[in-house]
Amino acid sequence: MPSRPDPALGRPAGDRAGAHGESALDAIRASYAVPAGHFDELLDSTGAVRPHWSRFARHAGGLSPDALDAKAALTARQLHENGVTYNVYADADGPARPWALDVLPNVVPAAEWEPIARALRQRARLLNAVAADLYGARRLLAEGLLPPAIVLGHPGFLRACHGVTVPDGVYLHQIAFDLARGPDGRWWVAGTRTQAPSGAGYALENRLTVSRLFPDAFRELAVQRLAQFFLALQEALRERAPCEGEAPHIALLTPGSYNETYFEHAYLARYLGFTLVEGGDLAVRDDRVYLKTVSGLERVHAILRRLDDDFCDPLELRADSALGVPGLVQAWRAGHVLVANAFGVAVLESPALCRFLPAAAERLLGAGLELPSIPTRWGGEAAVLDDMLRRLPAAVIKPAFPDTRMEPVFAGDLDDAGRARWAERLREAPARYVLQDYLPLSHAPVWHEGRLASRATMLRAFLVADGRGDYRVMPGALTRIAGQDRHMVSGRFGGSSKDTWVLSDAPIEPLSLLPGRLTAEDIGLSQREVSSRAAENLFWLGRYGERSENCARLLRAVLSRLPDDNAFASELSPAVIRTCRRHGLLRSPEERYAGVPHRLQPDLIADMLDRRAGFSLAFDIEQTARVAGSVRDRLSADSGRLLNDLGAAFARASREAGPAEALALDEQAIVVLAAAGGIEMERMTRDDGWRFHGIGRYIERLIFVATTVGEVAAAAEDTALLEWLLELSDSAMTYRARYVRPPEWLATADLLLCDRRNPRSAAYQLAKLAKQVRLLPSADIEALIAEIGEAQAMCHIAEPAAGGALLRPEALADFLRRCESIALRLSDALTLRYFSHVYETAQTTTAL
């Protein structure tokens, strides 16, 4: 695109911007230094900026420290708002770890990427051919090209997969390679991910974030788009799914929200339009896989799995797995469901295999590998141990077989005693380990704490099978950055990531993920089923969200009446104490506050913020955010941001917070929960999931109004207590507008129990429950629906002849107990009918 002339200076404005960009880059280079012996991604051997980085600087605009600090803050805020996390199992008791992203992209010229992509396609074809051979003719083993020990002894080699015919011969629908650049600029393969390769979703999120920071540079450098890769993944699964005349239904199988990459699972499911499922959501009937939905069982034709082999099927694989689907392996083996990647390919991840791939390539492809692996030695080979011990001081030690307890170890970071211990381990069990030559990783520029620094980097490249015997490479990658002063890249030890810009020599055309124009038939088939797990989580999102808001209002109604001298506490009704205890705001017995009212305020604050307590406000908010995260593919991102921020605020708060801080946090909770609830109810599609979410809220409101009115009824003539009750029920404004007088028991009870126009009343909740439960598919709970109708008929106070028996204390108490009982029993009935599927006969199938 030609630069436009600058009318003021008579020279192209683009040239001025470019000169300014380069000078800005020069200005921040003073702090940038790459350790000796490492390839510099930014500067060439003469110290000059590499051409592609120079082009980036010309078009990037603000590269000043202030501008980059602002971009870094914006990036961190956006990732937090989007809930982007990467957890590690070692941190299971702590909060989710935020995803770290550097503001500067990793720029790769087209001429450099093309040979890398070509070589990765060759390696992917090779590994797919190796898988076909290992579970077929086994020529590589018979001819001695692969040692049987690293294959047959690997836990990822599954004998249950032998002889299975996979569609189009594709075992590896996806594959990822970790790439490292050595000091001479040459690229090496450092690792392979074949079982359930992760990272593509994070690469996409990185792209969406960083491309917005430098829109001009992104456009002018002709950065290749990522959408085509994900479209190819969609097509690969659709085309190979055994649909038997049905529209393909594709599910993404996740271990659940506690998995370290769960964000990516939910993110990709939403982006690709796949159903996000856990093992418990699926059932096998007659060697076919079905999704448990609130409407019954729906066929699943293809599964993109993010669950390791061992956990996928407790019948044929790991018997103690609670994450898998009984009978799934047999359904796949029978050809009734496509599983991507195929079972049994974890054996290809063994680093020991790298030593033998060149010979396998010559045998299976008739050509040598275009991109080599880092030189690797396996202790199981004869006469190799002495060489390994000699190279140990400058090598990376890796387990030859999966070992979750062991991260790769760079022996150069160990002292003499540490190296001696590893030498002893190698002597004792040489076949368990491999040694890879230490490769000093290339360094790229990162913006860190207000200055330009350099960090070691690796690339994770992704490929997807194209259905024609070849692979498509994502024109980008997940660039992973090592932590400060670290030689190796590992998510467990900190570090960060980068967006990877692969440049193009040709203009970039826009691309949509949608494959083509929709037809009337497509629209007719577009109904999205609600899985039982999604329905259950939405139901509990409604309950936890409403419970949190009710408790926050209750807490405000008490704390706001407790000034510093605790004068109000001395007159506080026992009904208030009982109500607080009933809803988890106080755990101490009522007697603790008799005559010593000053204890109430600190106890309320401490118990409010105790996340370990099963019914505290902090606990309820944490559970609300957790359940929302489990169905993030069905919720607005705005709702998730609000709940994540609120959860973080409560996590930071101290149990020794003062009254002002506690009340401010409580006010924040009320506003955020109300906003999130409004977003959820207004923006969700009006399907059964939305209905269950609403039912959860109505149940919780009914319980709250029944219990609070019940506690206050005994002191019904106390005007101050009635004002408090109206406030915590969010009905004070309605009462004042309607009666223009101090609260009285008869009018208060009518407003909170019988007024169907009041969205907080018992009558309103009963009417909503009666309507929504009847609309659920096959709602076989007629007895409860009838009870709801009977309770509705009792909601009269002003007309004694028509049922005004609620005026009598015993009748009121019976009505309130009935309301609470209906709510709790309805919750149990829905769980049994729609979430647990206890009415179904358990069936599984397996090969004899």
Walk me through the structure.
- By secondary structure, the chain is an alpha+beta fold.
- The protein folds into three domains: 397 residues, no CATH class; 154 residues, no CATH class; 153 residues, Four Helix Bundle (Hemerythrin (Met), subunit A) (Up-down Bundle), CATH 1.20.120.
- The protein is 44% helix and 11% strand.
- The strands form four sheets. Strands 1, 2, 3, 15, 16, 17, 18 and 19 form an eight-stranded mixed beta sheet that branches. A four-stranded parallel beta sheet has the order 5-4-9-10, with helices on one face.
- β7 and β8 form a beta hairpin.
- α22 runs antiparallel to α23.
- It is globular.
Which helices and strands appear, and what pairs or packs with what?
Blueprint: H1 13-28, H2 51-60, H3 65-81, E1 106-108, H4 110-134, H5 139-142, H6 148-152, E2 174-181, E3 187-193, H7 200-213, H8 215-220, H9 227-240, E4 250-253, H10 262-272, E5 275-277, E6 282-285, E7 288-293, E8 296-300, E9 302-305, H11 309-312, H12 328-333, E10 338-340, H13 357-364, E11 376-378, H14 385-391, E12 395-399, E13 409-410, H15 416-428, E14 433-437, E15 443-448, E16 451-465, E17 471-473, E18 478-481, E19 496-502, H16 520-524, H17 532-559, H18 567-570, H19 574-582, H20 600-608, H21 617-630, H22 637-652, H23 659-683, H24 688-712, H25 719-728, H26 732-739, H27 745-754, H28 762-774, H29 782-793, H30 809-835
Parallel strand pairs: 1-19, 4-5, 4-9, 9-10
Antiparallel strand pairs: 2-3, 2-16, 6-7, 7-8, 11-14, 12-13, 12-14, 15-16, 16-17, 16-18, 18-19
Helix pairs in contact: 1-2, 4-13, 17-21, 17-23, 17-24, 17-25, 19-24, 21-22, 22-23, 24-28, 24-30, 28-29, 29-30
